[in-house]
Write a structure and sequence with these properties.
Helices cover 18% and strands 28% of the residues. With 640 residues, the chain is an alpha/beta fold. Keywords: Hydrolase, Signal.
């Protein structure tokens, strides 16, 4: 423990510790934990015992590591077999990693998951079963669990060094993704969001997307604009819209024809939609088979696919493809192209790419793209790259030694410029982990801090903490330290790491750290501003003031509440949860993201009528653009 652990009344928090054994430990380990109960400083102690089990390197290993959110997670690791041909045939001093994603409600350490690839144990690859943190995979293998997958792969590299592994190395950026049921859906998410890391994919008995598996058509009917905003908020999870990103990735789909849990319709649909993009998948439908049976992940077609996938390394980049980019911080590169910012969060972005490999010219046609760069990985593979963007006369000769630090930006006249300046990564602009709908708050680097800024709302803070723990096994500190722009810990001595959730009534909200932030709460109103013009146009444009803006004011009323994201330094975020009264705050707090696929925009003002009208009772809903201003496609009902 590097700092004290403060536990609020009735709060549950995970205790994180690291065990370092200089010599081989005994089979039993005992820990004694001392803590003080305030006020009065009463000292108490707790004890627990832990048994060690020694395993051979040929057996699955339970690997623990820190999730980016500062909690302990685990994965089941099976190292590659120590066979001579695996060592001789490894590519680029390493072997790929087969990522096996489990279905909903299963633990990665369960027999069903541990053994589901046993028949493939002789394949020359690392096999990794991430837990996703929880048995429900955190959030259906999306934001929270994606971070867990990456942390697990990084932990394998440390495991290799820690035990003195002398076998084949690991290719941390070459993934063969496979998964069953909810894990099959997770494979589609990896294919569409992390395409440059996926060398092959096999979704088994997986559904196409959440809203296609559990239709949302029984919701209340709101104004069409509200429906549009919610659809856009869910776009990152709508795999059917993003299948163009699968171009160049070998895919084998498998489904049982008699599956009554996830109907075969889902795999048939994805197979058909892939063909419409110009790519295709192999599809095996097992006649008479249901959702799960022993050996479902190691049928003859799948075993052959796993073996064949080893020959797909390194992955081949298609000469022609279209990259579809949702407004999501989970989106990585495709073909070496990484989109940092969209022009508008109200539309997906698209990059149509045609590569002239012979002459080293990449022709790019952009749609709703504001800023992008090339990855170092692609620049290491290419001898020369010239980008011809939109207009063939606008060309940039790429400095292959500075790909990750050179951005291509659309200027205010619709043209393009290149720059290596990094000062755009500031409170003035939205980037990195901040991108996306309200679920972006889950992309925290460190534990959550829940700030109580009003009297009498400790119970709501506690429930928020419990929800984060229940759904994500997430840790959170609760504090009453809520001074303006305060990002210090409870003792005021250390900067707070991790994202912040601020709970408040009335006008007790601290000011935003971002200049010209467009949401303001007074003692009687909540005010939204839309800026009409920019000063200092160009790559470092920022909003000078709220003069000349449209303003919308909503008087405080019983049951009114709001949620909105605000930027912090270093890609961090603050989620403000506000209520005009306790009823409004309780209603707003229920919308703190815990269920994936619900489609919450990052600005919401709720009325009391939302209790019976659902989202049809919203006063406002929308997205923040690249300058942290309310986007033009947002919904704002008539203010005063």
């Amino acid at each position: 423990m590097e700092e004290p652990l403060h536990v609020a009344p009735y709060q549950t928090r995970p205790l994180v510790f690291r065990l370092i054994a200089v010599h081989a430990p005994n089979t039993e380990f005992m820990a004694e934990i001392h803590y003080n109960v305030a006020p009065g400083g009463t000292q108490r102690a707790q004890y627990f015992r832990m048994n060690f089990v020694e395993k051979s390197l040929s057996q699955p290993q339970r690997l623990t590591y820190l999730h980016p959110a500062g909690i302990v997670s685990y994965a089941i690791l099976r190292p590659p077999p120590l066979k001579a041909h695996c060592v001789l045939n490894q590519s680029h001093n390493g072997l790929p990693v087969i990522i096996g994603l489990h279905g909903a409600g299963l633990d990665a350490d369960s027999v069903q998951v541990r053994e589901m690839l046993d028949a493939a144990s002789g394949i020359c690859a690392w096999t990794l079963f991430p837990s996703g943190v929880t048995s429900w995979s955190g959030d259906d293998w999306h934001t929270w669990a994606l971070a867990d997958i990456k942390a697990a792969i990084d932990a394998v590299s440390r495991w290799v060094g820690a035990i003195g592994w002398s076998g084949p190395g690991i290719l941390t950026s070459s993934w063969i993704a496979t998964g069953h049921s909810n894990g099959g859906q997770g494979v589609w998410f990896l294919v569409t969001h992390q395409p440059d890391s996926i060398v092959a994919a096999s979704p088994v008995s997986g559904y196409s997307s959440i809203e296609n598996y559990v239709p949302f058509n029984m919701w209340h009917d709101p104004e069409p604009l509200i429906s549009s905003i919610l659809h856009q908020s869910r776009a990152s999870f709508k795999h059917e819209l993003l299948l163009g990103n699968a171009a160049g990735i070998p895919i084998l789909q498998q489904h049982g024809s008699d599956d009554t849990n996830v109907p075969a319709y889902h795999s048939r649909l994805m197979h058909e939609l892939l063909e419409r993009t110009g790519w295709t998948s192999d599809y095996v439908e097992l006649r008479g088979k249901g959702h799960w049976f022993n050996g479902v992940m190691t049928t003859a077609p799948l075993l052959k696919f796993y073996e064949d996938s080893l020959r797909s390394i390194p992955a081949q980049i298609p000469s022609t493809y279209t990259m579809t980019v949702p407004s999501s911080g989970d989106m990585s590169s495709k073909g070496g192209l990484y989109v940092d910012q969209l022009e508008s969060p109200d539309l997906v972005g698209r990059l149509r790419v045609k590569r002239d490999v012979r002459h080293g010219i990449w022709y790019l046609q952009t749609q709703n793209i504001h800023r992008f760069h090339l990855s170092d990985r692609i620049c290491e593979l290419e001898e020369s790259i010239t980008l011809a963007i939109d207009d063939a006369n606008t060309r940039f000769k790429v400095d292959l030694s500075r790909c990750e630090s050179t951005w291509y930006i659309r200027d205010t006249h619709g043209g393009w410029l290149s720059s290596s300046r990094t000062d755009w990564q500031s409170l003035y602009q939205r980037y990195g982990r901040q991108v996306g709908a309200m679920d972006a708050i889950l992309r925290t680097s460190g534990i959550f801090t829940i700030r109580i800024c009003s009297i009498g709302i400790d119970g709501i803070a506690l429930q928020t903490s419990r929800n984060l723990l229940q759904y994500f096994a997430a840790d959170s500190r609760i504090t009453h330290n809520c001074s303006t722009s305060d990002t210090q810990d409870a003792r005021g001595s250390r900067p707070i790491r991790g994202n912040i959730i601020t709970l408040s009534l009335g006008n007790n909200i601290p000011n935003s750290t971002a200049p010209n932030y467009p949401v303001r709460v007074t003692s009687t109103q909540i005010i939204l501003s839309r800026t009409c013009s920019l000063t200092n146009p160009g790559e470092n444009a920022f909003l000078d003031s709220n003069e000349g803006c449209h303003q919308y004011a909503f008087n405080h009323e019983p049951g009114m509440g709001a949620l909105f994201l605000r930027p912090l330094e270093d890609e961090s975020l603050e989620l403000v949860v506000w209520g005009a009264d306790i009823d409004g705050l309780e209603q707003a707090a229920r919308l703190v993201p815990t269920l994936t696929g619900a489609g919450q925009p990052e600005l919401i003002i709720i009325s009391d009528s939302c209790r019976w009208n659902g989202h049809a009772g919203l006063y406002a809903a929308g997205h923040f653009d690249k300058f942290w201003q309310i986007s033009s496609g947002s919904y704002i009902s008539s203010g005063i």
